[in-house]
Amino acid sequence: MKNDRINYLVVGTFVITAFAVLIGVLFYITGNTGEKEKYYSVYNNISGVKRGTPVTFEGYRFGQVVDIKPQQTDNGVVYKIIFSVDKGWKIPADSVSRILASGLLAAIVIDIKQGVSKDYISAGGEITSKPGGNIMKVISNMAADINQITKNGLKPLIDNLNQSFGDGLPQIMDKLDNLLNQLNASAGALNEIMNSSSKDKVVSIINNTEDASKNFAILSDKINHAVTSMNKVIYNTGTLVDSSRPDLIIAIKELRTSMEIISQNIDTIVHNMNATSRNMNEFSRQIRQNPGLLLGGAKLKEGEAGKHE
């Protein structure tokens, strides 16, 4: 009997110890250990938020929601969410809290985005709230939009297509049959053209076309070479003109000087040329009259001698 009491005492002690350890682990997991400070934020919609919802600061969990108080206002119902966080945590005055769900299977959290202000919110103060990103809400809105598009856009379009094709489908099928018949006839004509003799001609034409294409490519290369050579000649000519420009200027100046001298003495030159022309005419006349003058000459008369002296 005494041993049974000892066994009961040992078992009871073990159960109580295990229960205490479990309570301690639960408190540790839920973040209720240590000293806490309370803050609050006000939201218009708190879908998915409840007591025990984690509160994070830039993703780091440091508290949880402890109470939710609905409040009636002139603009409707708002929700005051009170959460406790680790004591001594400095939250800048321009920080904002948002209700977030990072993924489809992720839990809802209230995340506080750190501000840049050097002033800090006192314990029990309000942290400015901001609408957050709720993936499930976005998906729900997208589903509603898709349902609306299907109902108001796709369904009438499909009905119109069914009506249009239902009325004109026989005509469309008749046109398709005619088109297929024409294609078959064209294929038969093409087979008749491509017999053994015509096939050789077609192959010859294709070969000649290929040869002409090759010759045209060679001609194009030659033309390009000729154009390149002509460009070089033009460039060399321009270089030659540029290098000979001083000599050309000097020659033009000298030619201008010569033309001025000739212009000044042109009357004398013309007079001498006229006299020379008359003397040649006289000389040729005397030779025609007396060819012997070229051999023996003639004596001058006394009057003529004195005249020439």
Structure description:
By secondary structure, the chain is α/β, with parallel strands linked by helices. Among the domains are: 41-133, no CATH class; 194-274. Helices cover 61% and strands 16% of the residues. It is built from 5 helices and 7 strands, in the order H-E-E-E-E-E-E-E-H-H-H-H. The chain has helices at residues 2-30, 135-193, 196-264, 266-289, 302-308; strands at 36-43, 54-57, 60-73, 76-86, 96-100, 109-113, 128-130. A hairpin with a 2-residue loop joins strand 2 (54-57) and strand 3.
Give the helix/strand layout.
Elements (H helix, E strand, L loop, with lengths): L1 H29 L5 E8 L10 E4 L2 E14 L2 E11 L9 E5 L8 E5 L14 E3 L4 H59 L2 H69 L1 H24 L12 H7 L1
List descriptors:
309 residues; seven-stranded mixed sheet; 7 strands; disordered C terminus
Short synopsis of the structure:
Helices cover about 60% and strands about 15% of the residues.
Order of helices and strands: HEEEEEEEHHHH
Question: How far from one another are the termini?
Answer: 198 Å
Indicate the radius of gyration in whole angstroms: 60 Å
Helix content estimate:
55-70%
The class by helix and strand makeup works out as alpha/beta
Supply the number of helical segments: 5
> What's the overall average pLDDT, rounded?
79
- Name the strands of the widest sheet in spatial order: 1-4-3-2-6-5-7
Low-confidence stretches: 304-309
